[in-house]
Amino acid sequence: MSMSMWDRIRREAHEIVASEPALASYVYASVLSHDSLEHVVIHRVAQGVDHPEVRADLVRRTFEQALAAEPALREMFEADLAAVFERDPASGRVIQALLYFKGFAAIQTHRLAHWLWNQGRRDFASYLQSRSSAVFGVDLHPAARIGRGLMFDHATGIVIGETAVIDDDVSILQGVTLGGTGKEHGDRHPKIRAGVMIGAGATILGNIEIGAGARVAAGSVVLRPVPAGKTVAGIPSKIVGDADDPAHTMDQVFDPII
């Protein structure tokens, strides 16, 4: 019998309360006092970036405005949660990303910041970028465009520039940079197509395309476009093999071309 994601999250929340009563108030405030997944996400983001000078209530109200204007955000929340649950072996429950994973929180904070940026409210958007960087260790420019089903595994040290584009179903590990090559203006950051996996510590520079289903090995420096379905590794990177659905399998081991 299938169970909705929201029903599953509530069930898992009750299990936490039963097994770890010391966290009961936290779980009730974070999950069980809310009537929908989107309200939980909004609450978690607002609490995460709360600051004495810009309080959680203001962030919460603003996110509710964004959700009313962009109902598709609900589907994005679910897709991002499902991505973590399906791809991260450390995630045995759906609720874990919602309560504890800063990569998920950073992505949802960006979704609000991006909406604000597109509304012309760029100072508020930039504030959220700065606050998310300080709290979650992820520096994601509010103008960058990201798809759904995105996973930041561990997330610490991820940096994504202003004109970067990340399509659906992409997995990015800690320490990844999607940057420019210097002081140029205009469209200057990487375009990451659907199904790509980028390994820990990889650096991708310039307005180049990483083709659908490609894999960038950990620690690589990528300065040239990567064809779809290929694995690149090294400094500077070169093609070392094929890739088979890397964003979902999270397989970081490859057989190099001899």
List keywords for this structure.
six-stranded mixed sheet, five-stranded parallel sheet, 9 helices, globular, 258 residues, UDP N-Acetylglucosamine Acyltransferase, domain 1, 2 domains, 42% helix, single chain, alpha/beta, serine acetyltransferase, domain 1
Summary, kept brief:
With 258 residues, the protein is an alpha/beta fold.
Task: Explain what this protein looks like in three dimensions.
This protein is 42% helix and 16% strand. It is an alpha/beta fold and 258 residues long. It has 2 domains: 1-138, serine acetyltransferase, domain 1 (Orthogonal Bundle), CATH 1.10.3130.10; 157-258, 3 Solenoid (UDP N-Acetylglucosamine Acyltransferase, domain 1), CATH 2.160.10. The protein has a 6-stranded mixed β-sheet. Strand 14 and strand 15 (238-242) form a beta hairpin. Helix 3 packs antiparallel against helix 4. The chain starts with a helix and ends in a 9-residue tail after the last helix. The model has no long low-confidence stretch (mean pLDDT 95).
